[in-house]
Automatic annotation (TrEMBL):
CDD domains for this protein: CuRO_HCO_II_like_1
Keyword Nucleus: no
Compartment(s): Membrane
Pfam family for this entry, one: COX2
Organism lineage: Bacteria, Pseudomonadati, Pseudomonadota, Gammaproteobacteria, Nevskiales
GO molecular function: copper ion binding; cytochrome-c oxidase activity
Name this polypeptide is given: Cytochrome c oxidase subunit 2
Family, per entry: Belongs to the cytochrome c oxidase subunit 2 family.
Species for this entry: Solimonas aquatica
Gene3D superfamilies: Cupredoxins - blue copper proteins
Keywords: Copper, Electron transport, Membrane, Metal-binding, Transmembrane, Transmembrane helix, Transport
Amino acid sequence: MQGLAWSLSLVLMAGVALIFLRVVAGASQPGGDAGTIAAAGYRWRDRLFWVVIVAGVAISFATLRKWPIPGHAAAAATPDVIVRAVGHQWRWELDRDTVRPGELVEFEVTSADVNHGFAIYRPEKSRILAQAQAMPGYTNKLQVRFDEPGDYEVLCLEYCGLAHHAMRAVIKVRADS
Ligand code: CUA
């Protein structure tokens, strides 16, 4: 589904770019005396235009080539543990909250009401380790391997109402669990 959306976006963007190029090509043909005076300026403008286009395509290709987000390709692996995570206004419901370091944990993320953002933070410095959207009617799979033991905080990344900030859970990663 994401692949389809991506392909469709590319085709539409190409269409818009073609129309844009046609308009620019039509507009850059100067007529009359004023045109001859301005011709040199137009030439430079046209060159600059192509430099911007080529640079834009090159930068987009270099940065978007790895789409979808790294990690999705690995999501086909068979998980060791499956944890169902359901977002509610305003709490997280996890059917288990303790896993072992090193095992491949698959979170099946969904929501019972509105959209939430399921985000797992590393114990140190509260950096995000992984995140997925919690959507009503959909289950998004998120595979995570916790390398270090510790308490990993789960917070909500999408504003979902008054007590959005209170949506907090903890995943305990324990070697002896
Ligand atoms: Cu749930 Cu914000």
